[in-house]
Every structure is written in structure tokens, then in C-alpha cells.
Amino acid sequence: MIPPFDWQRVVVAPWTDGLPTYGWVVLMGFLVALACGLIGNFLVLRRMALVGDAISHSILPGIAVAFLLSKSRGTIVMFSGALVAGLVTTVLIEFIHRRTRVKQDAAIGIVFSTLFAFGVLLISMFAGQVDLDADCVLYGELGLVGMEPYAMIGGVEIAPQPVLTMGIVCLLVVALIFFFYKELLVSSFDPALATSLGMRPGVVHHALMAALSVVVVGAFRAVGAILVIAMLILPGATAYLLVSRLPRMLLLSVIHAALSAVAGLHLGVWLDCSIGAAMVVAGAALFTLAWLRVLLGRRLVGSPPEPEGTSMIGG
Q1: For residue range 113-142, what is the model confidence (pLDDT) as tens digits?
Q2: Residue 5's closest CA among 290, 309, 270, 279?
Q3: 150 membership: H or E segment, kind and range
Q4: Domain covering 7-149+160-297 assigned CATH 3.40.50.300 in the classification
């Protein structure tokens, strides 16, 4: 069931003969994992990982409706539809949770499963009219990213369009975290303190959800709606096991993204499988190593360490 490991084909060839193709694949995988991981850190800290799951599924009907209305698969159309759907998802979850006796986890399950099913229904009924591939939306096409049309700047080919788009999304995410780091940090740990300091945690929350929607739709072409969930959670969860300062979590997320992209490429080439899925498996392997390190550390010390994250607000 497992093919033989050929060092030349699996390790050397992707960086020599296959570099024009696999180079873009690795770069796209890294950019997706980086953007998802940086945003995912704050979802993990806020105990909102399921909200990331909800939005990653719920933007599907937003994209489908945008396609049906515009008859276009343009980047602006995709981002607009996803952004609206992501904000609607957040509002619906809060509305159900606050106005009924339904707990937040149940509200998340109700909203994302209903909207995701509605999106699948729209695609199955009308996708033929707008050339929308359901499998691409669900599972992505990371291995084909090098074959996408190149973006032109000043008459010069820069990069495949999805790679350039994801690079811009990453820059926006980094800029938002840099300029609003204090607001994100304080509101993630103590919304009451954030309010007393003149911040508006509600606005920060909705802005974070909007940024999450943009990141998810940017990653759609590469890894689809399903695998993007893992990329949102794995880097932050892995870093959370290892460090107790938010800046270090963010740095480890970058390292996790790079290692997942490179290791996932070689795993995908070796097994001749989906490279996006292989990158997620590689990220899960890194999480397992971090978890085993924590377990071994506890056994050697003989007592559980201080809970991670208690001093993060000082970072």
C-alpha cells in the first residue's frame, strides 16, 4: 500500500527538475499556512477554534451566491461574497446564543452546518451555469497552482494569480496584527479590561472575523473548505503547547507553516496523493511531536507545569 521511497524522486527532483512547478506549490502552501496560522493563534487563545470551522464552511454559500449573481469567478467577487457570509455567520451565532437558551457550541453547529448545506445545495443545482467545481471548493487544487494564469505588473509576469493574491492577504494579516497587536492581545484575554482602557472588544472581534473570512477565501483555491480548518488550528495549537508568550506563538506559527509546506510536499510526492492534505498531515505530525514533548516533560518533572497562557498578556 505504501510505495517505495525513492530519494531522488521524492527529495531531490522537486527542487531540481520540478522546481518551476513545485516551487509555486510550496510557496502557496506556506502562504496559506502562514495566514491561517497567524489568525488561528487568536482563535485558539479566545477558545474560538469552532468559529473558524464555522466560517470556513459558511462562506461557501456566500461564494456560490456571488458567482450566481455576477457570473464571474473574479477575486473581488470571491472576497466580497466570502466576507459578507463570514460576517453573517458571526452575527447569526451571536444572535442565537444571546437570544435563546442555546449554548454557543450548539449555535455554531446549527449555523455552520445549515449554511454549508445551503452552499452545497446551490452548487449542486446551479454550478454548471458558472463553471464552479464543487470538488475544488471542498478539497482545493494546490498541486495545480503553478498552472494558473500569471499576474502581470507593468507587462511583467510576477506569479500565478492565486499565489499573488495569497501573498497580499498574508501582508494584510501581518499588518493588521502589527498595528492592532495591543487591542488583539488585551481583548483576547480580558474584554472587560479592554473596555476600561477605551478599546472596543466587540469591534475587534468582528474585525477579526472579517479578516478570518478574507484569509479563508484566499486559501480556498489551494486547500478548499475542509483542509483550511486544520491550517487555522494546528499552528496555533502547536505553539500553545510549547511557549507561554504570544510573540513566540506567532513566531512558532511561521516556523510551523514553513515546515508543514516543505514536509507536506515531499510526503505528497512520495505517496502520490493530495499535496494539500499531505501538508495538513505534516502539520499534525508536528503537533504530535510537541504534544509528546509536553507529556515527557511532565513525566520527568513529576508534576504538571503551570498552565500555558497565564502570563501571555505580559508578552
Answers
A1: 888 888 878 877 775 555 555 555 555 677
A2: 270
A3: strand 150-153
A4: no
